[in-house]
């Protein structure tokens, strides 16, 4: 079934996709937001369990991007000031101010001066409420994109799910770019293989960085830190030193955990080979847990439950020469994966969206 639509379609209901949809609505456009999952939130989706709010703790930086979105949309967004939100690095001497870090971890180590109430999940929920208050907005969950037809240099048709095709006015892609290598179809599509990869690399300027998000619900208080914490590791003899980065997020926002308990949130970078191998990924996760137990005595014994999410595309900083944002086609743009002067963290993507819309 093919539907002609005057609406702008945004694919991907993570942070970047939801913010893009809201900013397009603010411009007066009708917007359809679609996602393969059954809910908005992407990898950072909220889950409430035993009084803990999961998916909320991955918030770094000073909150400026969150405030800027709220101001543009006219939202009231509660921010919690953080007195000690710098970055500390673990060493045999204990916790010391973070020194030189790899670029990816360096973005996580930026000082956190403000924390949005509810973390990313709280921010995302507020922006989704804004979208849903508009009659020109529609969210279509559980609708994976099955094909993107190109004709005469434009997107002519987009397949959604098993049986629906739409002819959108414009398409904004806010998901990982790799599926596009398979989805682009039609006489105007670049040839599959190296030619298509080269075509997309004109618009995708950042390196691939898979990662694992680890969240731990603790039955007792483990540590009083409000800082971002970095634990160095070197999994192989010739592997560069990387860092497990995270925080005790409920110390920044007590609403994330029941009284007397704690929620901690961690990001663990993976190599591309580890991401593609479940055995190697689990080895890396076990090593990360040993690091945490070594840094915080009794860490494992206080865990009530955990949540582990492997990110096929995580947040990563700018790795190549800064580039301007160009649409792939006149009515087709990538939202969250162009070369960003702010780094392609969610905050960086938000900042660039504010400039482009």
Notes on the protein architecture:
The chain is of the alpha/beta class and 357 residues long. The chain has 2 domains: 2-42 and 127-205 and 318-356, 3-Layer(bba) Sandwich (FAD/NAD(P)-binding domain), CATH 3.50.50.60; 82-112 and 210-311, Polyamine Oxidase, Chain A, domain 2 (Alpha-Beta Complex), CATH 3.90.660. It is 25% helix and 28% strand. The chain has 10 helices and 21 strands. It has helices spanning 15-26, 64-73, 103-108, 119-132, 180-183, 194-201, 249-252, 272-275, 278-295, 346-356, and strands at 2-4, 8-11, 31-34, 47-49, 52-54, 79-81, 87-91, 94-97, 114-116, 137-140, 145-151, 154-160, 164-167, 170-173, 184-185, 211-218, 228-233, 242-247, 262-269, 303-311, 332-334. Strands 8-7-17-18-19-16-20 form a 7-stranded mixed sheet. The chain has a 5-stranded mixed sheet with strand order 1-13-12-11-15. Helix 1 (15-26) packs parallel to helix 4, helix 1 (15-26) packs parallel to helix 10 (346-356) and helix 2 runs parallel beside helix 10. The longest helix is centred in the last third of the chain and has 18 residues, at 278-295.
